Amino acid sequence: RAGRGEERGRAGQERLRGGLGEGGGSMGGCYSAYACSRKLRGRLGNLSFVLPVTERDAAAANAASGASTSSARAGSDSSARKADHGSSRRNNGDGPAGGTEEEELVAKMTSAEFGRRYVLGKELGRGEFGVTRRCKDAATGEALACKTIRRHRRRGGRGANRKAAGGGGAEAAARAAAAAAAAHAADVRREVAIMRRMSARGGAAVVRLREAREDQEGSVHLVMELCEGGELFDRIVARGHYSERAAAKVFRTIVNVIQLCHSNGVIHRDLKPENFLFANKSEDAPLKVIDFGLSVFFNPGDRFTEVVGSAYYMAPEVLKRNYGQEVDVWSAGVILYILLCGVPPFWGDNDEKIAQAIIRGGLDFNREPWPRVSGNPKDLIRQMLDPDPATRLTASQVLGNPWLKNADTAPNVSLGEAVRSRLQQFSAMNKFKKKALGVVARNMPVEELDKYVQMFHLMDKDKNGNLSLEELMEGLHINGQ
After folding, report:
1. One MF term from GO for this chain (predicted)?
2. Which domain holds residue 244?
3. Which sequence positions are flagged as catalytic?
4. Which of 18, 28, 154, 404 has the fewest CB atoms inside 10 Å of its own CB, making it the most exposed?
């Protein structure tokens, strides 16, 4: 079985290289720009459409709690319904594990007051519901980054007043819009709470959140540390010589981030190279994780069912809708594979094909540059990409692996120009897709986004956050499609 799996993997890699040359592969999945805000995430496959903007328990989401003043309770997420799995705990990821002290999560401040405190500069990144800009502390001149998230989408306009699918008219549309707005607000609260916790406890490997403010229009401004050192792959390509030793040093930081998250009751759920930036341009600049937009709080034993993340890095149990913190280790294993050969272990022309490849499994360690890579990292990848989360390594076990513990003595032989070239094209394709998504987001009216969110809620008859084939067909029929 292993032999067949590796043969499938080799065939996939060959098609990948054949389609795009030695530089890398066709890009699937959702690739967010640096510090862009909430994503309207969808996946249309043969059987279901998943859009995680479902009804939430708004009352519970408004609570704020934490073990320290830097921790707060974020919005609950009822779309992450937990499977009944033995003694597993049910958790919607809405608040930190432990702690009862409450605080205001996002303080109010008018736009004028915010403008007097911070001077906004050039745009750094943009998403469907937010934009990140360079900013400066007006009093001290300190350079920072400001991520602005539109917390409440408009509920009026054409979208809210359209005839609702299946009847109900404007009233049903208004309910759907209100539910979507509450869900979005809960997402923002949760992101802020997690950033506060990890900023306080994550050390140098986590971008620091300075403050969060909400203006009178409902926009939330996250003022944070500015990372100007560039993305991970860009620096690797720029350095020239790239070896197994260099990959080990970088990867140790990534796994440290996972251990920090898990020890503080957080599952990241969207680990990928684009979510790491170097603090500055110096040679020894620390690598930092910058985005917690899809992260959730958890307790040991909790299970989640919401399908989130970026396709290439998703663990098989995410696709099966029954997962815990082990998914972060899987994502890191995918990153390590890419760091060492320049292409992902599981690929496809679209998200559905990528998911099928992940479920099939099989790793290719025969093609270049794998013959020149030592055995330890290959064994580590196998254990991190174990399809069974129960036997997959934990973050602590990964850090205890001899290859990572002795990263400074790992082989320093160049992995070859082909690997650097693939990493360069892999990074370029990611950026191209982010730009394309940004163009769509900037040119689609808010009312149009609202229309699709409302349609989803009305088609979701059992209110479970997912559309079955029957619900999708019925909804499309009602809408004359």
Report:
1. ATP binding
2. 2-32+227-431
3. 270
4. 18
Q: Are 97 and 203 in contact (CB under 8 A)?
A: no
Beta bridge partners of 206: 289
Residue 359 CB: number of other CB atoms within 10 A?
12
pTM for the model: 0.69
| Peptide bond between residue 52 and the one before it cis (omega within 30 degrees of 0) | no
Assess whether pLDDT exceeds 90 at residue 162.
no
Q: Which of 331, 341, 344 is nearest to 393 (CA)?
A: 331
136 is in an annotated binding site: no
Is residue 118 a part of any domain in this protein?
yes
Instruction: Check residue 351 and give its pLDDT.
Output: 86
Tell which residue, 43, 159, 41, has the closest CA to residue 458: 159
Asked whether residue 15 falls in the same domain as residue 55, the answer is no
Contact 171, 194 (CB under 8 A): no
Secondary structure class of 260 (helix, strand, coil): helix
Q: In DSSP terms, which residues pair with 107 in a beta bridge?
A: 213
Q: Which of helix, strand or coil describes residue 304? A: strand
Tokens of 84: 């009944």
Cβ(387)–Cβ(361) below 8 Å: yes
Q: Is residue 480 part of a domain?
A: no
Write down the pLDDT at residue 272: 93
54 assigned to some structural domain: yes
Task: Using alpha carbons, list the distances in angstroms from residue 192 to 54, 63, 199, 273, 361.
Answer: 19, 13, 10, 22, 36
